Amino acid sequence: MLLHLPHILTPAEIAQARQSLRDDAPWLAGERSAGAQAASQKNNLQLSQQSASARALQALILNAVQRDAMFFSAALPHKILPPFFNRYGGQENFYGPHVDGAVLKDPNTQQWLRSDISCTVFLSEPQDYDGGELEIHDTAGTQRVKLNAGDAVLYPSSSVHQVTPVTRGVRLASFFWVESMVRDAAQRRLLFDLDMNLLKLRTQLGETPETTALTGVYHNLLRQWACT
Ligand code: NI
Q1: Model's pTM, two decimal places?
Q2: pLDDT string in tens for the chain (228-residue length)
Q3: Dist CA 136 CA 150 (whole Å)
């Protein structure tokens, strides 16, 4: 499932992120943090994860996604890897087709995380650069994603995806991986559909015996499928 999450960041948070991601920020070659297959395709810059600005922005992004109810409902996050920040522009302007590593080590906790869901948060306005689309290849064909600054997209980590070359301007973004409490993508999808439609039913009808019963179904399915 591909899911667009609008307005994850406030305008003030977008401004703060851009301020920290200026050209003189501690950018490193992106291929240093990729596996062998991905590194051969990766030509961008990535903010040093050890820098103070990365630490501050990681907290900003995690705080933003964790207050978003739709993010929680769709991802059912168990663990989230500290977000990365990247810059595409000039000579370092693309990330060719690749798959994300299945298991990744959290540098803070030294614990492994299984990548179920990838999330990209766009930090540059789409009119400020050409190219730089996130292309996701899945069974429904190729999806091209280029969102407003502050918006995010969730997509399956299992998909082949790429960032097309940026031919004008600079594309700043954050991305991170989520290990979900519900490993199976089809089960996660059912829970998300049930939750979103229950929300609409409650808006239309208020609380009824049926919405209460279906909420029970939601939680009992989650109880069956969740690993915490
Ligand atoms: Ni990737």
Answers
A1: 0.95
A2: 899 999 999 999 999 999 999 999 999 998 877 777 788 888 999 999 999 999 999 999 999 999 999 999 999 999 999 999 999 999 999 999 999 999 999 999 999 999 999 999 999 999 999 999 999 998 888 999 999 999 999 999 999 999 999 999 999 999 999 999 999 999 999 999 999 999 999 999 999 999 999 999 999 999 999 999
A3: 20
Record the tokens describing residue 215, joined without a space. 């909420």
Task: Report the relative pairing of strands 112-114 and 103-105 from DSSP bridges.
Answer: antiparallel
Contact 115, 177 (CB under 8 A): yes
CA 201 to ligand 1 centroid distance, Å: 36
Distance 117 CA to ligand 1 centre (A): 11
Q: How far is the CA of 120 from the centre of ligand 1 (A)?
A: 9
Q: How far is the CA of 20 from the centre of ligand 1 (A)?
A: 23
Rounded to the nearest whole angstrom, what is the distance from the C-alpha of residue 109 to the centroid of ligand 1? 22
Q: How far from 188 is each of 9, 74, 195, CA to CA, in Å?
A: 24, 7, 10
Domain boundaries, the chain: 3-180, 185-225
CA of residue 100 to ligand 1 center, whole Å = 5
**Cα-to-centroid distance, 204 and ligand 1 (Å):** 40
Ligand 1 centroid vs 209 CA: distance in angstroms? 44
Amino acid residing at 195: D
CATH class of the domain at 185-225: few secondary structures
CATH class label, 3-180: mainly beta
CA atoms within 13 A on the CB side of 159: 21
